[in-house]
Design a protein that fits this description.
GO terms for molecular function: peptidase activity. InterPro entries: Peptidase_S54_rhomboid_dom, Rhomboid-like_sf, Rhomboid_protease_S54. Its main location: membrane. This protein has 306 residues and is mainly alpha-helical. The protein is 59% helix and 2% strand. The protein has 11 helices and 2 strands. Strands 1-2 form a two-stranded antiparallel ribbon. A hairpin with a 4-residue loop joins strand 1 and strand 2. Helix 6 runs parallel beside helix 8, helix 7 packs antiparallel against helix 10 and helix 7 runs parallel beside helix 11. The chain is elongated and about 95 Å long. The N and C termini lie far apart (100 Å).
Length: 306
């Protein structure tokens, strides 16, 4: 006599009941409508037609194309949280609070603060080797009003930009914008002491304009805001026009490299190639910014006899 649970024919001549392929101890009359293998209720999931086993569903998940933004960043379900933007705002506020505690002055926190003194962007000091000023200056602010204006702009502009670009690209564009602003100051504003997140904010404005172009939507509103801020930078004394323009150009160029790489919404292989090209373009913008800073450092050393 043959055991009816493992094939063959039962003693009464009836065929054995199939067993679940994942649970051989469970007889079942059900099967996957895709692969046809017997499966128990626990191993089946409802499908558009019939029901699929968990193995077929897992295989589909590996080959399915995940939803992505126009920049190729993963599209998260629900209401995405712009974590990086909030972290950047927190860092700027924290550094401002430190300078206030050191100086004992909310409005004139740049006076008597060792952190502010060592991080503010002053080209001769950068030429002398204080490279931390190139990026650190982008997290300093002259007083509470300066901080509030920049953080409000970052909150408004940064959230949508982060969601479209994705966190890693967003951080990269932000930092490259700071580098671009510092490079422009090193090149054209040698004797000024500058600080603030404005260069990075202008870079994000440029990024938004590029994103709108990639989406085939009018960048007019963003360009109008940029033009207004440039006018303000020119007409109000004490504002670093070159820091703003340098950040704007670097941020827009870096975003263009990421957004317009061919194949960003194609097959997995095409997306990987697009990522490589995009990051390569962003690296090129970084190299140009660093190159300008290095060149100006050498020139200033020669001019100042360092």
């Amino acid at each position: 006599m043959t055991n009816p649970g493992w094939g063959g024919v039962a003693g009464d001549g009836t065929p054995p009941q199939p067993r679940c392929v994942r649970h051989p101890d469970r007889p079942t009359a059900l099967s996957c409508t895709r692969c046809g293998r017997p499966a128990c209720v626990e191993c089946l999931r409802p499908a558009a037609v019939g029901q699929h086993c968990v193995d077929c569903i897992a295989a589909d998940a590996k080959t399915a194309r995940s939803a992505r933004t126009v920049a190729g960043a993963p599209l998260r379900t629900g209401l995405p949280t712009p974590i990086v933007t909030y972290v950047l705002i927190g860092l700027n506020v924290l550094i401002y609070a430190i300078t206030v505690l050191q100086s004992g002055n909310v409005a004139n926190n740049h006076l008597g603060s060792p952190l502010f003194t060592s991080w503010a962007l002053w080209p001769p000091a950068v030429a002398d080797g204080d490279l931390v000023r190139v990026v650190g200056s982008g997290f300093l602010h002259f007083g509470a009003v300066h901080l509030l204006v920049n953080m409000f702009a970052l909150w408004v502009i940064g959230r949508d930009t982060e969601i479209i670009l994705g966190r890693s690209r967003y951080v990269a564009v932000y930092l490259v914008s700071i580098l671009g602003g510092s490079a422009a100051v090193m090149a054209f504003q040698v004797n000024a002491v500058t600080a603030g997140a404005s260069g990075a904010v202008f870079g994000l404005m440029g990024a938004q304009a590029v994103i709108l172009l990639r989406l085939k939507r009018s960048p007019g509103p963003v360009l109008a805001i940029i033009a207004l801020n440039v006018i303000i930078s020119v007409t109000i004394p004490g504002i670093s026009l070159w820091g703003h323009l340098g950040g704007l150009v670097a941020g827009a160029a870096a975003t263009a490299a990421l957004m317009f790489a061919p194949g960003s919404l194609g097959t997995p292989a095409e997306r990987q190639k697009a990522r490589t090209l995009g990051w390569g373009g962003l690296a090129a913008v970084t190299v140009v910014s660093v190159g300008v800073i290095a060149l100006r450092m050498a020139q200033l050393r020669s001019e100042l006899g360092m």
